[in-house]
Write the structure tokens for this entry.
Amino acid sequence: MNRRILLKFGGNALSDKDDMNRFAQDVCTISNAGFTPVIVHGGGPEISAEMERRGMKALKVAGLRITDIDALHVAEEVLKSLNSEIVQVFQKAGCSVQGMSAEGIITASKKPPVLSDGKEVDLGYVGDVASVNPQSIDSVLMSGNIPIIYPICSDSNGLKLNVNADTVASGVAKAAGASEMVLVTDVPGILNDGKRIPSLTLADVDNLIHSKVITGGMLPKVEACRAALLNGANTVYMLNGKEPHSLARRLINGEDCGTSIMVE
Ligand SMILES: Nc1ncnc2c1ncn2[C@@H]1O[C@H](COP(=O)(O)OP(=O)(O)O)[C@@H](O)[C@H]1O
Ligand SMILES: CC(=O)N[C@@H](CCC(=O)OP(=O)(O)O)C(=O)O
């Protein structure tokens, strides 16, 4: 077995050091079991905290940050520094890893304005995935390292753009040819009335968006799941990074935790 798997974790999921260490151990475990992980991380809460520390307003619309040029600089600085810290955690856990940005893997394009309460909002320096290039991921994997990627991208003119880490995860999953994608977050899965939904189809996801059960930060997540599934992944999972060893329990033991999403 040599299954490429895209693992993405958000800033909230692993803010606790013990959660982060356990996740790194799980990544080693699944690598030894024959998975080939590719990792994308976020850092939304850390970016917001740093913006507020500098007296800037941290605003999100439909789970996406309104990013002016100053916010873009803060996002890049914070994500780069988090990336170095995360690389060290994985090295201590015994994984061979290489930190990098998503530039060179994803070419982004400026995201068109989004609708919020019936009004069009321009998000500024925010991008969507326009195209992907597998070469740099392949070469990191061939050298025996696990890529650990932060979600700053650039467009075809080299202009940097802030892309939501879930969106980057789906683009990197496509570039890597991943057969599965796991989004690790801080809730037990997709919830309805506080109850975990064990599995969903894309049609179910549409209904939950329509009925406003899925909102905020969960919106870019489910859209990333849709993109990954339509670009070749068989299954995507949403797991809680705060449940110890949820990754290994789900992937190795086949335990029923989190939410799995399939095309139908
Ligand atoms: N139906 C839902 N089920 C679970 N979480 C939801 C749902 N709708 C909105 N959310 C929100 O989405 C959040 C996860 O998104 P986000 O905070 O951006 O996570 P991350 O930092 O891991 O990317 C949850 O903490 C929750 O507040
Ligand atoms: C455009 C946009 O929303 N970019 C995100 C990038 C980081 C991210 O997505 O982090 P999480 O996975 O922790 O949410 C941001 O600025 O917060």
In short: The chain has one domain: 3-262.
